[in-house]
Each structure stands twice: as C-alpha cells, then as structure tokens.
Amino acid sequence: MTKPAIEEINELTNFLIEVEQKRVGRKIGELKFKISRLKELPTLEPKQETTEPTQASLFVDMEELPAIAVKLVQAGVAQKEALRIANQEWDVVDAVALPEGREDFAEYVEEKITLARHATGVKNAGGFIVKAIQENYQDPELQKRLQVKKEKEKEEMLASLRREMVEKKNALIRRAVRANPELLEQAAERITSSFVNDFLMEYDSVKDAYAVGGLVAGEINIILGEEFCADLIAPVIAAYEAEKERIEG
C-alpha cells in the first residue's frame, strides 16, 4: 500500500490508517498497520446530499469515552465493558469484595490495571482486569512495592517543590536588595552566628560577601525573608504550602 493510497483513505473514508515500519539492518523488514474507525461529528448546518465526510469532520470514538474507560480500553478491555465499568463505578464490584473506605474509583481501576501488568501467565489481560475489578484481586507484595515507589516519588516531588520555592523566594529577595542595598547592612547586623560572622569578616563589605553566596548569603536571605521581605515573599510561601499539602494528601 503506497503512501498516496493511505492518504486518500484517511482523507475520504471513516478510517484512519497509520503505518509503523520495522527495519532489519538497513532494510524495512515489516510493516505494521494501525486502523482506527472514525465517525462524523454532528453539525448544526443543513446536510448537503453531495457532501462527503472529510478528515476535518471526523472524530475518534475513543475521545468520547470517560477517562476511566479510555484507560481500560488501552489496557485491553473491550470498549463496551470499559464503558459499563466507567458508568457504574463501584456498582460493578461484588458487594463482598468492596474495599473499606471506598477510595477513589479511578485509583482503584489503575491499581487493577497495574496488577494485570505484573501478573504472570495472563493470556487475556482485558478479561483479567475486569475480574480483578469485580472481585477486588489483591497482591500484597506488589502493593507494598508500589507503595514504596509512591512514597519515594512523593519525597522527590516535595524536594523539587521546596527547591523551586527557595529559588523563587531568593530571586525576590535579590530584587529587593538591588532596589534597596541598605537591606544587606541591616540584615548583617542581625546575624547571631559567630561562625557566619567570621566568614563575613573576610570580605571588604557585606555586599561582596553576599555576592559570593554561600553561608553569608544564605543567612542574610533567611533574615531578610523573615524580617524585611516577609510580605514580598508571602505569595510564594503560600503557593508552596498549598502544593505541599496537595502532594502529601
């Protein structure tokens, strides 16, 4: 099938054809065709008898499904069954198998899809997932590993969030210092750490020490943030706390 032929089918019919090429060395050894059925979108304009559906008027069926159904179909569940599960949610789960606390159903479905991916000897992934949802299949070892992974990801997200907050906060403080250099002297007078003050004494001015960064700049930024620039950085802190609470929750 030539490229022009495929383009003509995509343009004039209710099918979308995509071709994947697999090379063996420098030559193309295999061709894989992916065919999706499309349908015409409804329109408010009067239908003309001579008008043929074009690519611009077509819409992929999958895009009309609820998010849960899309995930299920992508995992191998039949579209009709995926839609039933998405619409009925907890009603599809056997009464005796319902989890305590009724967690979010989307997370419950994702857990069963993950269970299918890690299960051995499964020939029909879609059927396995449907049964896993209905009967609440469990794999304690897998769940433990996934929980450890989830906690690690949460810790990494929180660490990244904190670094971003500190960078934004310090950028605002540096902007304030450029606008009012006297803030450096005022903050330096409030340094109580003898260790930091010893570092500060090695420079000709507080400005020079601050420009180098390190302990002196860090201590000054803390003092400026708490005593002189609190209102300026308050929105950054508030956004950080809100996102931190969301991630931890």
Protein architecture, described:
With 249 residues, this protein is mainly alpha-helical. It is built from 11 helices and 3 strands, in the order αβββαααααααααα. The protein has a 3-stranded antiparallel beta sheet with strand order 1-2-3, with helices on one face. A hairpin with a 2-residue loop joins β1 and β2. α4 crosses α5 (125-135) and α9 (206-212) crosses α10 (214-228). The radius of gyration is 30 Å and the shape is elongated. The protein starts with a helix and ends with a helix. The model is unreliable at 39-51 and 53-60 (pLDDT under 50).
Quick description:
The chain is mainly alpha-helical and 249 residues long. It is 59% helix and 11% strand. The radius of gyration is 30 Å and the shape is elongated.
